[in-house]
Specification:
The chain is mainly alpha-helical. It contains 6 helices and no strands. The chain starts with a helix and ends with a helix.
């Protein structure tokens, strides 16, 4: 979600990245939700790609690479993901709606 240009050209790729980030942060990476997202997006789904944001978080992968050990690396990955998720606050409702659609009735 920090590099939309090369990775999120289509509405589906945007939705995949955005919902998976949401799942990782808000649902502790629930494998059933990840699978539902993939199945939903592999089907015939009509969604619109929202405008990309200018600000995409205070941390980048470069900050993660500064970790000096495995424990610090894990901590930085979680902080990085949280930073990106917080940057997308204005699109949280969209991610929630897409996940709800993926999970179905």
């Amino acid at each position: 979600m920090q590099h939309l240009e090369p990775y999120c050209h289509s509405a589906k790729s945007y939705a995949a990245h955005h919902t998976r980030l949401c799942c990782g942060i808000e649902h502790s990476g629930n494998a059933k939700i990840y699978a539902a997202i993939q199945k939903w997006l592999n089907g015939s789904v009509e969604i619109e790609k929202p405008e990309g944001l200018i600000y995409r978080g205070k941390m980048t992968v470069a900050d993660v690479h500064l970790a000096s050990n495995a424990e610090e690396h894990t901590k930085r990955v979680l902080e990085w993901a949280q930073s990106v998720w917080e940057a997308y606050t204005v699109q949280h409702d969209l991610a929630h709606a897409w996940i709800k659609a993926a999970l179905g009735p």
